[in-house]
């Protein structure tokens, strides 16, 4: 504590700032995510290799489970001398914005990157918020410098940020997500941006002074945020989070989610050519890449919501190998196969929904929602739109349905459904519990209500379970009468829908192709 106080004082005087917590924890990870127990969440990974060590800078997500917002007060570091050893050192709190940048507010320790400068020192490019800013958006990029990736850090540009809405060129974007590359000839390049805006510029060799004009990149398909610039051979690569969404998108079906895509260029300031997708959407809505070669292997680091208690704002860093296709010019990056630490053995369940292909009356569903959410087994206290199927549109019809199709006939005698709402029962607008609902199954030539059904409840704060006389079918429908009247109806939203067999067993999840599009619909022959 004394040490922290001393460093804080020094920071205020323009001095150095060292680690808040000098003692690293040793992590014996079982695989992805690296920090899996939910004690520390870690987001926005940025890798750096120094001699025989791989470092990963990460932000720390501290949002409570029911808060849908980034609560990020500090950066942390992971390091290893061998990725396959799964042994990591964890430095839980290396820096807070206000400890090094006297002009910055506490909080908002968003995606940063540490690079080795020409002088062999380490430069941290950090998006933070300016304390006194007349800019509409206070995000700005500061630069800190240290002799070791572990610090102590001091402001490399004490007069303030090097990028904001007012410097070096006025802009109206949110100035976050910096990525920096020191090229083989020692030239330095900085890119940054989010919400579809990507800008870049060269920096002087002092690592902080702009050199030449800023550029805006508009050729990288679906660019949303999180650029990562690097060079391999004579080619420059830009990885980024993309969110060009739609039922036929090669990136993402739901716009809140992102894939990791990439482009290439022959020069560090472009022009950039889009080359494809290297990572499908992960379990968190945001996705954030970093790529590096370490001990002869290329790695992609990214984050997911896969740790214990994880979520969209409680993310955790993962690492997987990246493969190159050198038969193409420029060399292409293969699709990364995300790996997970082995989970507990599957338990017996009556729910066979995961083996079905989901469908809905409003396909193609609006890009903010996800059909796959219906049977993904995930129910969140504070779901975002892609955590559910919903029927919301400008003119919601009075009747909606969702459907499961199995490849082979299955026996069913129950169902459980979890509705979501942002309007009370009876509402004519927004998303409300349905006025009523019921289940129908395909008999072989028609849809028919299930028989002897128990009450169809419509609560939104828990599970609505229905039992019925056992049926054998390949297709089951939930049919919703939306709340409202006349021509005006609210939408219906479902977070999870289970289809129950009479006896529990360990179930096989249907895997390919995506969402079981190969499974025949019962009434569409
Ligand atoms: O962590 C906050 C923001 O989420 C980052 O700046 C984005 O890249 C996204 O990962």
Structure report:
This protein starts with a helix and ends in a 20-residue tail after the last strand. The strands form eight sheets. Strands 23, 24, 25, 26, 27, 28, 29 and 32 form an eight-stranded antiparallel β-sheet that branches. It has a five-stranded antiparallel β-sheet with strand order 1-5-4-3-2. Strands 6-7-8-9 form a four-stranded antiparallel β-sheet, with no helix packed on it. The chain is mainly beta and 525 residues long. Strand 11 (188-192) and strand 12 form a beta hairpin. The protein has helices at 2-12, 97-100, and strands at 25-28, 43-50, 53-61, 72-80, 87-95, 113-116, 122-129, 139-146, 154-155, 179-182, 188-192, 198-203, 210-217, 223-232, 235-242, 259-265, 273-279, 290-294, 297-304, 316-321, 324-325, 332-333, 349-351, 357-360, 389-390, 399-420, 436-442, 447-449, 464-481, 484-485, 488-489, 493-505. It contains two helices and 32 strands. The chain has two domains: 19-333, Glycosyl hydrolase domain, family 43 (Tachylectin-2, Chain A), CATH 2.115.10; 349-524, Jelly Rolls (Sandwich). The structure holds beta-L-arabinofuranose. Beta-L-arabinofuranose is lined by residues 43-44, 59, 70, 72, 110-111, 176-177, 225-226, 286, 288.
Give the tags.
3% helix, five-stranded antiparallel beta sheet, 2 helices, eight-stranded antiparallel beta sheet, 32 strands, mainly beta, disordered N terminus, single chain, 525 residues, 2 domains, Tachylectin-2, Chain A, Jelly Rolls, binds beta-L-arabinofuranose
Count of discrete alpha- or pi-helical segments spanning 4 or more residues: 2
What is the fourth-level CATH superfamily of the largest domain?
Answer: Glycosyl hydrolase domain, family 43
CATH architecture of the largest domain: 5 Propeller
The end-to-end distance, rounded to whole angstroms, is: 71 Å
Poorly predicted ranges:
1-16
Largest beta-sheet details? 8 strands, antiparallel
Overall geometry comes to elongated
Small molecules bound: beta-L-arabinofuranose
Radius of gyration: 25 Å
Number of domains: 2
Structure summary, number of beta strands: 32
Q: What's the average pLDDT?
A: 93
CATH topology category name of the largest domain:
Tachylectin-2, Chain A
């Amino acid at each position: 504590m004394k040490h922290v106080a001393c460093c804080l004082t020094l920071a205020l005087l323009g001095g150095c700032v060292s680690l808040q917590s000098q003692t690293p924890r040793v992590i014996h990870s079982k695989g992805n995510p690296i920090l899996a127990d939910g004690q520390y969440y870690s987001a926005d990974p940025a890798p750096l290799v120094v001699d025989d060590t791989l470092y990963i800078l990460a932000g720390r997500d501290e949002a409570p489970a029911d808060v849908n917002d980034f609560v990020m007060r500090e950066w942390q570091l992971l390091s290893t001398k061998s990725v396959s050893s799964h042994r990591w050192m964890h430095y839980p709190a290396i820096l807070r914005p206000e400890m090094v940048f006297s002009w910055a507010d506490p909080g908002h320790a968003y995606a940063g990157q540490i690079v080795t400068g020409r002088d062999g020192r380490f430069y941290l490019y950090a998006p933070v918020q300016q304390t006194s800013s007349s800019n509409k958006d206070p995000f700005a990029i500061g630069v800190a410098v240290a002799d070791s990736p572990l610090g102590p850090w001091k402001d490399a540009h004490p007069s303030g940020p090097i990028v904001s809405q007012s410097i070096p060129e006025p802009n109206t974007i949110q100035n976050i997500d910096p990525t920096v590359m020191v090229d083989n000839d020692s030239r330095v390049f900085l890119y940054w941006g989010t919400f579809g805006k990507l800008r870049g510029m060269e920096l002087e060799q002092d690592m902080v002074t702009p050199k030449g004009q800023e550029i805006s990149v508009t050729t990288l398909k679906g660019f949303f945020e999180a650029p990562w610039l690097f060079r391999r051979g004579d080619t420059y690569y830009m990885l980024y989070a993309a969110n060009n969404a739609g039922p036929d998108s090669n990136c993402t079906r739901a716009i809140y989610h992102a894939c990791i895509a990439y482009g290439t260029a022959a020069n560090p300031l472009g022009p950039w050519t889009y080359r494809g997708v290297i990572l499908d959407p992960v379990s968190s809505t945001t996705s954030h890449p970093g790529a590096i070669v370490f001990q002869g292997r290329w790695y992609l680091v990214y984050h997911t919501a896969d740790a214990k208690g994880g979520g969209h704002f409680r993310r955790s860093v993962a690492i997987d190998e990246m493969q190159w296709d050198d038969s193409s010019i420029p060399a292409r990056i293969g699709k990364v196969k995300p790996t997970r630490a082995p989970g507990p053995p599957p338990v017996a369940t009556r729910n066979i929904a995961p083996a079905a292909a989901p469908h809905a009356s409003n396909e193609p569903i609006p890009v903010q929602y996800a059909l796959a959410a219906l049977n993904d087994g995930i129910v969140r206290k504070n779901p975002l739109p892609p955590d559910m199927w919903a029927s919301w549109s400008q003119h919601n019809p009075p009747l909606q349905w969702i459907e499961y199709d199995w490849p082979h006939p299955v026996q069913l005698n129950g169902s459980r459904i979890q509705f979501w709402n942002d309007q009370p029962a009876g509402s004519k607008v927004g998303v409300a519990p349905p006025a009523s609902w019921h289940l129908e199954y395909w008999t072989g030539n028609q849809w028919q209500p299930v028989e002897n059904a128990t009450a169809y409840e419509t609560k939104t704060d828990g599970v609505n379970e229905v039992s019925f006389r056992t049926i054998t079918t390949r297709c089951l429908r939930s049919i919703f009468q939306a709340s409202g009247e006349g021509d005006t109806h609210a939408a219906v939203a479902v977070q999870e829908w289970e289809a129950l067999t009479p006896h529990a067993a360990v179930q096989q999840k249907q895997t390919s192709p995506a969402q079981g599009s190969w499974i025949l619909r019962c009434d569409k022959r």
